[in-house]
Design goal:
The protein is mainly α. It is 43% helix and 0% strand.
Length: 67
């Protein structure tokens, strides 16, 4: 892993490792591939943000249906 830091730079390796941790990626090959494809330079969407699904939809019955 440290060899990747020598080749790509420690800052890039750190950024890729943070991204890999967020995405639960833990293989050397995956981290190396992320560096080769410059994925450390593409912003990662906020991992803490969740998509809000619409509450109104024709297929959703809601609590009043079950009374």
């Amino acid at each position: 892993m440290l060899r990747l830091g020598k080749h790509y730079g420690n800052d890039r390796l750190e950024a890729v490792c943070q991204r890999a941790h967020t995405l639960h990626i833990n293989t050397f090959k995956s981290i190396e591939s992320m560096l080769k494809n410059n994925l450390d330079r593409i912003p990662l969407a906020d991992a803490g943000a969740t998509r809000q699904l619409p509450l109104l939809h024709e297929n959703i019955r809601g609590p009043e249906y079950y009374h």
